[in-house]
Design brief:
- The structure holds 2 protein chains of 2 kinds.
- Chain A is an all-beta fold.
- Chain A has strands at about 5, 10, 20-25, 35-40, 45-50, 60, 70-75, 80-85, 90-105, 110-115, 120-125.
- In chain A, a hairpin with a 5-residue loop joins strand 9 and strand 10.
- By secondary structure, chain B is mostly beta strands.
- Helix content of chain B is about 0%, strand content about 45%.
- In chain B, a hairpin with a 6-residue loop joins strand 3 and strand 4 (about 45-50).
- The chains are: A mainly beta, B mainly beta.
- The interface between A and B is medium-sized, with 25 and 26 residues.
Amino acid sequence: QVQLVQSGSELKKPGASVKISCKASGYTITSYAMNWVRQAPGQGLEWMGWINTNTGNPTYAQGFTGRFVFSLDTSVSTAYLQISSLKAEDTAVYYCARVRAEAVTTEYYYYYMDVWGKGTTVTVSS
Amino acid sequence: QSVLTQPPSVSGAPGQRVTISCTGSSSNIGAGYDVHWYQQLPGTAPKVLIYGNSNRPSGVPDRFSGSKSGTSASLAITGLQAEDEADYYCQSYDSSLSGWVFGGGTKLTVL
């Protein structure tokens, strides 16, 4: 079945880096864009940006530039999120989510997140 | 402060109808961008509930419905069930931010 399998929880010290993986199965990863979404403890969902899985070109939301890097390895059907210079406020659950483009007409599509990973918890603490 | 505004909480008794509003502006919902709704059950990942303003993915009960008008959208849930207790998020696109945006989320409590 179609699923996104994310890597396990991480405990990191401030200033360290972390790389989260999101492996796509049941479909071809290059057929759908991939979003990344953050959820801080007790907070709502926050869109971090997306990666074009055909070109590997990332787009970052405001507030997620500089320390955040989206990447891709299509040979293993896996998307990655790397966060460097970790801060306590990076403590959150990070989700990858597939972007579905559903055709309404030949020129108009609905774009929404139809498959989500279970999330990766990153805890930053000294 | 979220770009899309949702009530922090709503509640209803089993069998009742509740609605959750999502208020945006002229740079997102009011500009014609579509609204999608996600349900997040406790301790789980979100799942799409309504896409394209009013469409239900297969497997989502018809007790859930969505609508959009002007700068707002709404999610309605009829015949409330205990299993509907969850957080609900609206999501759209914002041209000023050039990106996707979420509402702050609404916690639904089934009394």
